[in-house]
């Protein structure tokens, strides 16, 4: 710190002030919206359930088990838990070896270390050999908060999405996270799951069933459709509510299956209107916005505006302050849409 | 394990002869391919021959046999060596060796486990094999299997940080079913290891990391066998066989030559080499 001439951070894009407070906003009236749970907590619970169900499940962590919540599994199944110390590359390799003996390894640490520090190991060993290793990373995005940019993964989806054989899942809430954990256990192949540190409202209906490659459309809008992942789903739903009051019909899609992308629901959304907004707590380069743009520009070109982190690093602050600072708010989505629609 | 000859002398003779065959096949396939890694395939030929044709329990008819011993070629560029011992063991037809590095061949420039049965895991990016071996060793122990894991590393390769992470965890998890072997040929791509990035003292480093270290001449078949036996007896810690080797071993024009790390023999060089190795004898 102390470098007053620092140019890139924090950013000063034309964000609107105030607005619904993202992850702290629980005014939302979607199913179970009062229930708030961090996806990492849901992971800890789901892993425990899965461990009881299947004894081939093994869990690895790199000295962050208290934060990633794998500690719960570690306590109940110490003989199936391997702390690899602060050595992410070795953790990925060891998980790979375990999968080669028929075990079902879940390897967890912070998203920035899991995908960045050990990217070559994930590419060369897991993906190229198509191993059945599940990479479940927590502390993704800027809602990591006070720890700052070094700990805020804004590139992880890009890094994982580009790998052949890799599946990329970004659950929107605790309920979906639990379903994802069980679903990927039944699927053979490398999977990356992106989870968060902060509590998020429940947005998915009680009877929702996650399926790899399937998105969930809350509503298809005639004026605009917002395609979101992770915590941005709840924020997109907030935005849609605000827009409705102003007579704009905005749809919302939870694209938790970032790879494989749900082409069918995306096409439906694009055909229903001429404007798609993507919303992600991730760089607009290489993430959900890119995935959607790549697909629609080939199959059904419509205008696409990417709401996300605009090629800058994050910074320290409270999660809700950071969401505002970087424009990851319902108000900024609303403004973006109104500007685009000239309304 | 192939039919074991009765006496130790016969066994040694058999393995020496087999190692010669392995070297000949490596040179032939590399010459046809026109590219590939000659030096590091030849330097480890005796060790890998001892593993595939004597020490390891494996079954070419059942490559996924649960109780097999595992071989992880961490120095994946020695693929021609692995392909040769797999073919000679009967995992696939010898004729496939002529397709090395050719379009459509399962014999990729570096081993691919999704394309070729017998390859346990894809390698080629150095420094990753020991972690993988650790994971396998842990998994085998969890399943109560007595299978062993052998991992072949290059001496240049141990400059990779991940190797030392793995060295630490193998000792931490007391993986006595694991035996790492360093092909200590003293050379890497840009020159002598001690000039590029000093790695000595290797023995002391691994000892300090909690390993049982056995130092041998990696071309002395008797020494290789006794080291492999000794490693099997070690309890509570992983073993390292520090094998002193000569890069390009067996062909004088390649021996100790840094240039022959990554180039294939010419037809002329092949003929000289075959004469020297006594092909057809
Ligand atoms: C991570 C990584 N970096 C660089 C290379 C390129 N490379 C291939 S072989 C080699 C030298 C290896 O030397 P050594 O381990 O001593 O192998 P050997 O002498 O047994 O052939 C290098 C740098 C690689 N394959 N992987
Ligand atoms: Mg070497």
Write the topology of this structure.
The complex is a heterodimer of chains A (343) and B (281).
Chain A: E1 36-38, H1 39-53, E2 57-61, H2 65-68, H3 71-76, E3 81-83, H4 88-100, E4 104-108, H5 111-117, H6 119-127, E5 134-137, H7 156-161, E6 167-169, H8 174-185, E7 191-194, E8 199-201, E9 216-219, E10 224-228, H9 232-245, E11 250-254, E12 257-259, H10 263-272, E13 275-283, H11 288-299, E14 303-309, H12 319-325, H13 330-341
Parallel strand pairs in A: 2-3, 2-4, 4-5, 5-7, 6-7, 10-11, 10-13, 13-14
Antiparallel strand pairs in A: 1-8, 6-12, 9-11
Chain B: H1 8-33, H2 39-43, H3 45-55, E1 70-73, H4 79-89, H5 129-142, E2 149-154, H6 161-172, E3 178-184, H7 193-196, H8 202-208, E4 212-217, H9 221-233, E5 239-244, H10 267-277
Parallel strand pairs in B: 1-2, 2-3, 3-5, 4-5
Helix pairs in contact in B: 1-3, 1-4, 1-10, 3-4, 3-9, 5-6
The structure holds thiamine diphosphate and magnesium ion.
Shape of chain B: globular
Q: What would you give as the CATH superfamily of the largest domain in chain A?
A: Thiamin diphosphate (ThDP)-binding fold, Pyr/PP domains
Most extensive chain interface and residues per partner: A-B, 32 and 34 residues
Radius of gyration of chain A: 19 Å
Name of the CATH architecture of chain B? 3-Layer(aba) Sandwich
Total domain units of chain A:
2
Task: Report on this structure.
The complex is a heterodimer of chains A (343) and B (281). Chain A has 343 residues and is an alpha/beta fold. Chain A has two domains: 5-11 and 27-202, Thiamin diphosphate (ThDP)-binding fold, Pyr/PP domains (Rossmann fold), CATH 3.40.50; 216-342, Rossmann fold (3-Layer(aba) Sandwich). Chain A contains 13 helices and 14 strands. Chain A has helices spanning 39-53, 65-68, 71-76, 88-100, 111-117, 119-127, 156-161, 174-185, 232-245, 263-272, 288-299, 319-325, 330-341, and strands at residues 36-38, 57-61, 81-83, 104-108, 134-137, 167-169, 191-194, 199-201, 216-219, 224-228, 250-254, 257-259, 275-283, 303-309. A seven-stranded mixed β-sheet of chain A has the order 3-2-4-5-7-6-12, with helices on both faces. In chain A, helix 1 runs parallel beside helix 8 (174-185). The termini of chain A are far apart. With 281 residues, chain B is of the alpha/beta class. Chain B has a single domain, classed as Thiamin diphosphate (ThDP)-binding fold, Pyr/PP domains (Rossmann fold), CATH 3.40.50. Chain B contains ten helices and five strands, in the order αααβααβαβααβαβα. Chain B has helices at 8-33, 39-43, 45-55, 79-89, 129-142, 161-172, 193-196, 202-208, 221-233, 267-277; strands at 70-73, 149-154, 178-184, 212-217, 239-244. A five-stranded parallel β-sheet of chain B has the order 1-2-3-5-4, sandwiched between helices. In chain B, helix 6 links the parallel strand 2 (149-154) and strand 3 (178-184). The longest helix of chain B is centred in the N-terminal third of the chain and has 26 residues, at 8-33. Chain B is globular and about 50 Å long. The model of chain B has no long low-confidence stretch (mean pLDDT 96). The A-B interface holds A 58, 79-80, 82, 84-85, 87, 89-103, 105, 120-121, 123-125, 128-131 and B 70, 112-114, 120-125, 127-140, 142-143, 161-162, 165-166, 168-169, 172-173. The structure holds thiamine diphosphate (TPP) and magnesium ion. Residues 39-40, 43, 75, 77, 124-127, 154-157, 183, 185, 187-189, 247, 261 of chain B line the site of thiamine diphosphate (TPP).
């Amino acid at each position: 710190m102390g470098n007053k001439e620092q140019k890139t951070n924090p950013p000063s894009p034309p964000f609107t002030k105030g607005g619904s407070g993202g992850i702290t906003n629980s005014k939302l009236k979607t199913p179970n919206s009062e229930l708030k749970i961090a996806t990492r907590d849901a992971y800890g619970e789901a892993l425990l359930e899965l461990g009881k169900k299947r004894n081939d499940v093994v869990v690895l962590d790199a000295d962050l088990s208290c934060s990633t919540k794998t500690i719960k599994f570690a306590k109940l199944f110490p003989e199936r838990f391997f702390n690899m110390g602060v050595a992410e590359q070795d953790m990925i390799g060891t998980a790979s070896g375990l999968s080669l003996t028929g075990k079902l390894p879940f390897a967890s640490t912070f998203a920035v270390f899991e995908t960045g520090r050990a990217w070559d190991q994930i590419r060369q060993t897991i993906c190229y050999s198509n191993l059945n290793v599940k990479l479940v990373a927590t502390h993704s995005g800027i809602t990591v908060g006070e720890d700052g940019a070094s700990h805020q993964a804004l590139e992880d989806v890009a890094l994982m999405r580009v790998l052949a054989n890799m599946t990329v899942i970004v659950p929107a809430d605790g309920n979906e996270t639990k379903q994802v954990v069980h679903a990927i256990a039944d699927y053979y192949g490398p999977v990356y799951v992106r989870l968060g540190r902060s509590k998020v409202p429940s947005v998915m209906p009680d009877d929702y069933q996650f399926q790899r490659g399937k998105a969930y459309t809350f509503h298809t809008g005639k004026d605009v459709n917002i395609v979101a992942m992770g915590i941005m789903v709840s924020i997109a739903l907030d935005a849609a509510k605000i827009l409705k009051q102003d007579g704009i019909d905005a749809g919302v899609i939870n694209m938790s299956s970032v790879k494989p992308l749900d082409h069918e629901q995306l096409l439906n959304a694009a055909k229903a209107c001429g404007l798609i907004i993507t919303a992600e707590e991730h760089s607009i380069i290489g993430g959900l916005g890119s995935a959607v743009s790549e697909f629609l520009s080939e199959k059904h070109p419509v205008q696409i505006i990417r709401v996300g982190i605009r090629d800058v690093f994050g910074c320290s602050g409270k999660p809700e302050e950071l969401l505002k600072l970087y424009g990851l708010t319902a108000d900024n989505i609303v403004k973006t849409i109104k500007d685009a629609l000239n309304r | 394990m192939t039919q074991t000859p009765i006496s130790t002398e016969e066994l040694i003779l058999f393995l020496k002869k087999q190692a010669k065959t392995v070297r000949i096949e490596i040179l032939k396939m590399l010459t046809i391919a026109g590219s590939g890694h000659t030096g590091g395939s030849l330097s480890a030929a005796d060790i890998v021959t001892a593993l595939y044709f004597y020490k390891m329990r494996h079954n070419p008819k059942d490559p996924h046999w649960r109780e097999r011993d595992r071989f992880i070629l961490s120095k994946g560029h020695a693929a021609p060596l692995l392909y040769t011992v797999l073919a000679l063991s009967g995992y696939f037809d010898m004729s496939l060796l002529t397709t090395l590095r050719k379009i459509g061949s399962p014999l990729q420039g570096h081993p691919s486990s999704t394309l070729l049965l017998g390859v346990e895991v894809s390698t080629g990016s150095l420094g990753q094999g020991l972690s993988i071996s650790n994971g396998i060793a842990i998994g085998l122990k969890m399943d109560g299997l007595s299978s062993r894991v052998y991992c072949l590393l290059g001496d240049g390769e141990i400059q990779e940080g991940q190797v030392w992470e793995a060295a630490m965890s193998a000792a931490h998890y007391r993986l006595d079913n694991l035996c790492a072997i360093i092909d200590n040929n003293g050379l890497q791509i840009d020159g002598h290891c001690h000039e590029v990035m000093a790695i000595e003292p290797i023995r002391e480093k691994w000892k300090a990391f909690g390993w049982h270290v056995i130092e041998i001449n990696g071309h002395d078949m008797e020494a290789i066998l006794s080291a492999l036996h000794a490693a099997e007896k070690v309890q509570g810690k992983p073993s390292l066989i520090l094998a002193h080797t000569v890069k390009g071993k067996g062909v004088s024009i390649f021996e100790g030559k840094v240039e022959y790390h990554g180039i294939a023999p010419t037809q002329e060089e092949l003929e000289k080499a075959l004469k020297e190795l006594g092909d057809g004898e």
